[in-house]
Amino acid sequence: MSSKVLEVRDLRVYYHTPRGAVKAVNGVSFSVAPAERFGLVGESGSGKSTIALALMRLIKPPGRIESGEAYLDGVNLLTVPDEEMRKIRLAKIALITQGAMNSLNPVLRVRTQIQDALEDHDIHLPPRELNDRIREFLERVGLDAKVADMYPHELSGGMKQRACIAIAISLQPKVIIADEPTSALDVVVQRQVIETLKDVQQQLGASIILIGHDMGLMAQVVQRLGVMYAGDLVEIAEVEAIFAEPLHPYTQLLIASLPSLDRKGTLRGIPGLPPSLLDRPTGCPFRTRCPKAFDRCEVEEPELREVRPNRWVACHLYA
Ligand code: SF4
């Protein structure tokens, strides 16, 4: 079995505006192993959701995938014809977003929406088999089979998000991208939905890319984590290693900003703002906020390198 189900190389996505190109994703490379839970974490605007949309080929103008490769099962998602990509979506790679629950069609019962997803991929089942299949999907996400006959307005937010997960897994994709899937839910429901996602992922043997800004949630869910800053991946490592010893100064500050019992509720932010993606400064994009910046950081952009086994960091401190 291949050790990578998804391999992304040097992905660049720019938004072309009258003022110039906004470099939302600026040459990002990472891979995901079969059945792995991989996290992408960063502040809003760091490019993580743009990566999700690029992998689904859902970038809309003025956005454009400028270059790169994204191999899923040997197929480059960035270059397959549109019709083939339509079939790959859901069948091999599915996306669940924060707003997914609002994308349910309000005038169709849940059953019809799952059936439509199957039929859109040429899966036409006899009524009894279809019923069994829909019941199985709903039960897998912790919903009662009778939810099939309900309309979205009859469901709570958590139930709607579970129904979206049921649709996302209806074709048993190899990769599920979950982009802030629980942000619109209250904390208790968030936890339940995340547990559901984990259960489903384990049952299907699918890989998950969990996208978010919450380091605490990442620590509970993912096995490996990529930290994004201003369109770049600045650190990739196993989640325990990142929490035990963050190497990139940005990751260090992210972890230091987490509330802890010892710090008695003091919440430390990271001073300063990310750079403009329209006019990226020379050198390291983090240098204006980095407490460890030195001369080289002003002139040379650091590359993501493996500085220790399985630890990738983009920082001159480790050159
Ligand atoms: Fe800080 Fe320099 Fe490392 Fe950038 S390269 S994170 S500015 S030390």
Brief descriptors of the model:
319 residues; alpha/beta; Rossmann fold; eight-stranded mixed beta sheet; four-stranded antiparallel beta sheet; 10 helices; 12 strands; 31% helix; 24% strand; binds iron/sulfur cluster
Concise account of the structure shown:
The chain contains ten helices and twelve strands. The chain is an alpha/beta fold and 319 residues long.
Count of helical regions:
10
Q: Under the CATH scheme, which class?
A: Alpha Beta
Query: What is CATH's topology name?
Result: Rossmann fold
The percentage of residues in β strands lies in 15-25%
CATH superfamily: P-loop containing nucleotide triphosphate hydrolases
Taking the alpha carbons of the first and last residues, their distance comes to 34 Å
What fraction, in percent, of the residue positions are helical? 25-40%
**Low-confidence regions:** none
Largest sheet: 8 strands, mixed
Shape: globular
Ligands:
iron/sulfur cluster
How would you characterize this protein structure?
This protein has 319 residues and is an alpha/beta fold. The protein has one domain: P-loop containing nucleotide triphosphate hydrolases (Rossmann fold). The strands form two sheets. Strands 6-7-8-3-9-10-12-11 form an eight-stranded mixed sheet, sandwiched between helices. A four-stranded antiparallel sheet has the order 2-1-4-5. Helix 5 packs parallel to helix 6. The radius of gyration is 20 Å and the shape is globular. The chain starts with 5 loop residues before the first strand and ends in a 6-residue tail after the last strand. Bound molecules: iron/sulfur cluster (SF4). Iron/sulfur cluster (SF4) binds next to loops.
